[in-house]
Write a structure and sequence with these properties.
By secondary structure, this protein is mostly helical. 53% of the residues lie in helices and 7% in strands. The chain has 13 helices and 5 strands. The strands form 2 sheets. A 3-stranded parallel sheet has the order 1-2-3. It has a two-stranded parallel sheet with strand order 4-5. It binds adenosine-5'-triphosphate and L-tryptophanamide.
């Protein structure tokens, strides 16, 4: 008898807390779109997560829709991927509460993102910011994914999710699949162009450090010409993240955009110095992002289409998520309706 082939599952999300950056594209989204045929894929706009930091409501709404347009423009075909808004699927908050009760205070206290964000938002260290990884674990576990494609900074949260799922399974049997983080070899941590020792981040106050997906080519070119390189005297293009963080970051970006190896890049710019290298990286980025900008601009003119995508997405996502939620509710002992 022929066996039914079930595809492996991939899932990830990004907070609509700012405009998407080259970092989130190379670290995460690029990997999402490459695997749509092989996997059953779920990608969402993590709006519930984004209110852990104060947001302007109108901006949040606009960015959530823009983010959906950019997901599609990056190559996520809504026919092959389930694209949805996190707050449209109530199972996330429902399972989030249950997992709050299976996540330890000590575990949450160790999360680097919590420490970083509470330092940056000292006047608003709210409970949501603290328990955020338990909600993220719920986002993931509802869909029983095999892989969670994220950048390096999210690895700690995926590991916590695995620990919470294992703890739950140890009590109640095999309820959750234990997922693996899926992190790219090049581009897992793109650094700021102006401060190459800190991560490029969409909520960064310095706009020169960050390249946004929908930015105009002239602006991108200018940012790369101004990118901080290193104050060493050799002025050569060599990959050495400890000694030459600025140049090494630009090399990672160039490699991720062109597919060239570090050796090939060193050879290409041998004897040419930073003056030739920086504009070349800018050009490679402009060409990588051009189709994303053009296609997302086009999609944003068709609001009805985008609405249809997120409504259908929420329906498909809810169906799967509610199956897991029902099982969890039953296991923990909630009386059936
Ligand atoms: P925020 O500033 O709001 O914290 P962010 O710019 O750091 O946001 P996220 O929304 O946290 O980005 O991340 C979206 C996805 O992109 C995550 O999977 C994250 O790991 C990845 N990512 C974000 N920034 C980078 C980066 N600089 N390099 C590689 N991957 C990144
Ligand atoms: N925490 C992530 C966004 C996020 C996520 C998820 C990623 C929320 N839920 C589930 C993967 C899977 C961030 O801040 N980048």
């Amino acid at each position: 008898m022929e066996e039914k082939q079930t595809k492996k599952v991939m899932l990830s999300g990004i907070q609509p807390s700012g405009d998407l950056t080259l970092g989130s594209y190379l670290g995460a989204i690029k990997n999402w779109s490459a695997r749509a045929d092989e996997f059953d894929c779920y990608y969402f706009m993590a709006d519930l997560h984004s209110i852990t930091v104060r947001q302007n409501p109108a901006d949040l709404r606009r960015r959530t829709l823009e983010q959906l347009a950019q997901y599609i423009a990056c190559g996520l075909d809504p026919e092959k991927n389930t694209l949805f808004v996190q707050s449209h699927v109530p199972a996330h908050t429902q399972l989030g509460w249950v997992l709050d009760c299976y996540t330890m205070f000590g575990e949450l206290s160790r999360m680097t993102q919590f420490k970083d964000k509470s330092a940056k938002n000292a006047d608003n260290i709210n409970a949501g910011l603290f328990t955020y990884p338990a909600l993220m674990a719920a986002d993931i576990l509802l869909y029983q994914p095999d892989y969670v494609p994220v950048g390096d900074d999210q690895k700690q949260h995926v590991e916590l999710c695995r620990d919470v799922a294992t703890r739950f399974n140890n009590v109640y049997g095999d309820v959750f699949k234990i997922p693996e983080p899926y992190i790219p070899k090049v581009g897992a941590r793109i650094m700021s162009l102006s401060t190459p020792t800190s991560k490029m981040s969409k909520s960064d106050k310095d706009p020169n450090g960050c390249v946004y997906l929908r930015e105009q080519p002239e602006v991108i070119a200018r940012k790369f010409k101004k990118a901080v390189t290193d104050s060493d005297t050799e002025h050569c293009v060599r990959f050495d993240p400890a000694e030459k963080p600025g140049v090494s970051n630009l090399m990672s970006i160039y490699s991720a955009c062109t597919g060239k190896s570090m050796d090939a890049i060193e050879a290409e710019f041998d004897g040419k110095g930073y003056g030739a290298f920086k504009p070349a990286v800018g050009e490679a980025v402009i060409e990588t992002l051009r189709p994303v900008r053009e296609e997302s601009d086009r999609l944003l003119k068709d609001k009805a289409y985008l609405e249809q995508v997120y409504r259908e997405g929420a329906e498909k996502a809810s169906y799967i998520a509610n199956k897991t939620l029902r099982k969890v509710y039953k296991k923990v002992g909630f009386l059936a309706k």
